[in-house]
Design a protein that fits this description.
The protein is an alpha/beta fold. 34% of the residues lie in helices and 17% in strands.
Length: 267
């Protein structure tokens, strides 16, 4: 089957899906309006475009990509953006499948203006793929014609509790909370840091924040002003091969996300 995967192109999910489909013998191409961040083993179609121009230029660019690649099906990853471009841009006879993850259905579906893009994508798509039941219900309420629930998981051979202590793990035996979400406003690390400052548990717990993002400087300042800078550890990005060992050492995984589907970081 010839499959066009329309998405940002730089998320780990993109790479897992595209490479996984190609490894199973499908002809796969990536359509993206973002500048490539690494090398791809499949054709990459689309011209880098400012995100604000996506709703205007995305459908036409995607139609051009379809004329070049001639896919049997187009997957639009994240309903509000590429799901919308796919639903509006596919040529007649080519099914568009919207892929929903969380905010695109739980938040964008109720935002003034933005909800129009989400609803248009769901009404015009042949199918909505959702990875959790509450997302499937949200999609139906927003006008999805057909919904399939497609849960996904993790490699249990890789993510095991019997992992050695990784290099860089903080010393001491304090109870440890760990958060592995990107440092973006959606994931609300500020609430976690403020909560740590109000915790009266003895011994005092610590919070390991794995990852990076634009909020890091502000979060580091908040840890200082909240008096918990000595108990908040910012690791920056950690290689995926090492991450299971960090998770295995922690006592509790935490997240304060404003909306979520079924995040791999939690699984």
């Amino acid at each position: 089957m010839r499959i066009l995967w329309a998405s940002k192109g730089w998320h780990s999910t993109d790479r897992n899906v595209v490479e996984g489909l190609a490894a199973r013998g499908h002809d796969v191409a990536l359509f993206t309006l973002a500048a490539p961040r690494f090398e791809w083993s499949v054709p990459v179609l689309g011209t880098p475009t400012h995100p604000l121009l996506g709703p205007l230029l995305g459908p036409a660019q995607l139609r051009k990509a379809c004329e070049e690649f001639r896919p049997d099906v187009v997957f639009g990853n994240f309903v509000t953006t590429y799901g919308n471009y796919a639903a509006r841009g596919v040529p007649p006879g080519v099914p568009a499948v919207a892929v929903g993850w969380g905010s695109d259905l739980l938040l964008h579906g109720s935002w003034f203006g933005v909800s129009l893009l989400t609803r248009a994508a769901l009404r015009r798509s042949r199918l909505l793929l959702a990875n959790a039941g509450h997302l499937a219900e949200a999609g139906r309420s927003l006008g999805a014609r057909s919904v399939e629930l497609l849960p996904y998981g993790i490699d249990t051979e890789l993510f095991r509790p019997d992992q050695p202590v990784p290099e860089g793990w903080p010393e001491g035996a304090a109870p440890t909370l760990i958060c592995t979400r990107n440092l973006q406003p959606l994931y609300d690390h500020k609430t976690l840091i403020r909560a740590l400052g109000q915790c009266t548990h003895e011994p005092a717990p610590r919070l390991v924040i794995v990852g990076d993002g634009p909020e890091r400087p502000e979060l580091e300042r908040l840890a200082e002003t909240s008096g918990v800078a000595d108990r908040v550890i910012f690791t920056g990005r950690i290689d995926n091969k090492v991450l299971p060992a960090w998770l295995a050492q922690a006592d509790v995984w935490v997240s304060a996300a404003h909306s979520d589907g079924l995040p791999l970081s939690m699984l």
